[in-house]
Amino acid sequence: MDLSYNEDKEKRRRLTGEKTIRCCGQGENMEKYGFGVDVGGTSCKLGLFTDSGKLMEKWEIPTDTSEQGEHIIEHVAASLERRQRERGLADEQIIGVGIDTPGIAGRDGVVRGAVNLGWEACPVQEQLKMRLQKKVCVCNDANAAALGELWQGGGRGYRDMVMVTLGTGVGGAVILNGKVLAGAHGIAGEIGHMTVFHKEIERCVCGKYGCVEQYASAKGLIRITRKLLEKKDPYTILVDTPELSAKQILDAAKRGDRLALDAVEVLGKALGSALAAVAEVIDPEVFVIGGGIAGAGEIILRIVQKYYRPDVLPAGADIPFELARLGNDAGMYGSMKLLLDTSEEK
Amino acid sequence: MDLSYNEDKEKRRRLTGEKTIRCCGQGENMEKYGFGVDVGGTSCKLGLFTDSGKLMEKWEIPTDTSEQGEHIIEHVAASLERRQRERGLADEQIIGVGIDTPGIAGRDGVVRGAVNLGWEACPVQEQLKMRLQKKVCVCNDANAAALGELWQGGGRGYRDMVMVTLGTGVGGAVILNGKVLAGAHGIAGEIGHMTVFHKEIERCVCGKYGCVEQYASAKGLIRITRKLLEKKDPYTILVDTPELSAKQILDAAKRGDRLALDAVEVLGKALGSALAAVAEVIDPEVFVIGGGIAGAGEIILRIVQKYYRPDVLPAGADIPFELARLGNDAGMYGSMKLLLDTSEEK
């Protein structure tokens, strides 16, 4: 059975789901459910899943970042409660809530440094648990997305996976034996900040020079393209406007634009050589590349592998590269998976 | 209690040990024992340990690599049997044998590609088990050394450790949660073959260019020093003779020799930047540096950290660097630890 996500299937599942749930409401079948929540800077994605991992329904609410984001958790809780009520689900049918956010999620369930949300430190687990009286698992958004992709996306069927998310920045996560590697100081899987070009003179947001993120993120791709445009290469359809986007550059590259292709080569070189190093450290079963830039598809995989292969030991040359498949739903899936894993452990 | 290894303690332990064993022989105390064996290209190191991990006695036998090394396992078995007999230990007192060798140790207990020993493929586990009628665990020598250092050496007290061995080549191992990470294709922890200098024109033994091993191994250090000597820098006591050794270079560096220090800087840069990448992938609790070159001591740690720190995210800057402490005994310790871990699991 193919569980990859798409609109048609979601509709079918929703229909099926509602039927099942009505049964449950009538006490004929006490199937269990859980909520997966992905809190982003603009919106929160919420999903209702069966305990076997089927997505029954998903919806979004805007993220209210006013007043240092102090209403975010309350809004999420209210939305989940409302959905539970509308579905006629009993409290004992809900295993709990898995929730991911930007920032660093501590073992105490407190999220620290989620700048996008206005949080310095937010006791997400405590707040949500108090409010809903349900089990709550909290994790970082990049880790959740990776777990989601491993569960039902590009990494499905594997246990050891490295995921890289090429978005505004470059996120990363290492999964070993089905579990996200946290690391001793919270920096495991920080592939975006591996130093790849020691001669870089511009500074990365992290304070270092020559990080993967400076070349392989949307911002990085635009930065590199602008540098190339300064050289006034005539062989390009791109122009240096304030609106120049990663998508424009990737579209131009796909149409064979030489300058755009040069910029994508820099991206491939930075990420490919970093992933070769990753392979020689943890030797995963699969690499999964996601995020907006990976939306360009095969061209990205091809160019990353072009630089990956000569840099890695022969035994690692054929580690497969897959595109992420769950898009913006990955975090929601991963949060639910974390909830399921944690429930199993107890 | 300090369990770090030294001669005096060994003597004390041996004495204590013999007493204990005599007791056992008399049936008063059925303490259990195990053998840890480290098979090297020149000699095999053998140790008798209590099941609580105390080394009672260690000895060596030459490694007979004649006839494609087909007598090695037989000689090890005979030596272990003899020692058991001399000690008056009953069969039921011996948990088993942990043994490490160069090459890749498969889950089937077969060692492949141990070129130094003359083995193409050797069914170490089966041979030793048949011969001794005891439980046998087989692992790779670099992994065993790392496990040994974690257990009773530089990594003692930690669970997540990265070990690098700077010998003729550069070996590496990743230990997470007390277990060696094997990787999906046998290349996990291959820190010696992470590419660090993309512009290198000489080829590494692995076939790639710019690997850590080309700068941070004994061979690498000599190679770099020779290159610097070609420039005829007058500020050095070193001369390019066929006998030029890593030890000479390191001694000269310790005495402030400018050219030797320059060579050590290259070593530090290669290893430091590779370990920064390692930190951003798996984020260990500690780095342990061993092997002949690490025998130079603090100078190596200092220079590696000099290049490590600016290359790693701030949260990883203070990961401790320790020197390995068990020297050539590390593999023997690690083999015994593997035996104990495997016995516990069952």
TrEMBL record, chains A, B:
EC number of this enzyme? 2.7.1.2
A GO term from the CC aspect: cytoplasm
Which PROSITE patterns does the UniProt entry name for this protein?
ROK
Q: Which UniProt keywords apply?
A: ATP-binding, Kinase, Nucleotide-binding, Transferase
GO biological-process terms attached to the record = glycolytic process
InterPro entries cross-referenced by the UniProt entry: ATPase_NBD, ROK, ROK_cs, ROK_glcA
The highest taxon in the source lineage is Bacteria
From the UniProt record, which GO molecular function terms apply? Answer: ATP binding; glucokinase activity
According to its UniProt record, this protein's enzyme class is: transferase
In terms of PANTHER family, this protein maps to: BIFUNCTIONAL UDP-N-ACETYLGLUCOSAMINE 2-EPIMERASE_N-ACETYLMANNOSAMINE KINASE, ROK (REPRESSOR, ORF, KINASE) FAMILY
Give the UniProt family note.
Belongs to the ROK (NagC/XylR) family.
Q: What is this protein called?
A: Glucokinase
Species this chain originates from? Roseburia hominis (strain DSM 16839 / JCM 17582 / NCIMB 14029 / A2-183)
